[in-house]
Specification:
This protein is an alpha+beta fold. It has one helix and three strands.
Length: 70
């Protein structure tokens, strides 16, 4: 019976940790950015400075949403 109790305690702990992470993510503001230095075959992310050869909807380095306006 002790093993079942330990499993339940462990499950509760993991569920509590998961709920805490969900709460943290839910309150985070999404990163926004735009592409600049659009020139000879490359551009840069305004959020992290990542250099890219293509203007993606999201920065491949930091994940910033690049679909908005400046």
């Amino acid at each position: 019976m002790a093993k079942k109790t330990d499993l339940i305690k462990s499950a509760r702990k993991h569920i509590a940790e998961a709920l805490e992470l969900i709460d943290i993510v839910a309150t985070m503001k999404p990163k926004k950015g735009y592409w600049y230095d659009k020139g000879s075959m490359s551009c840069r992310c305004s959020n992290c400075g990542c250099k890219s050869t293509k203007e993606f909807n999201f920065c491949p380095n930091c994940g910033a949403d690049m679909r908005g306006e400046r």
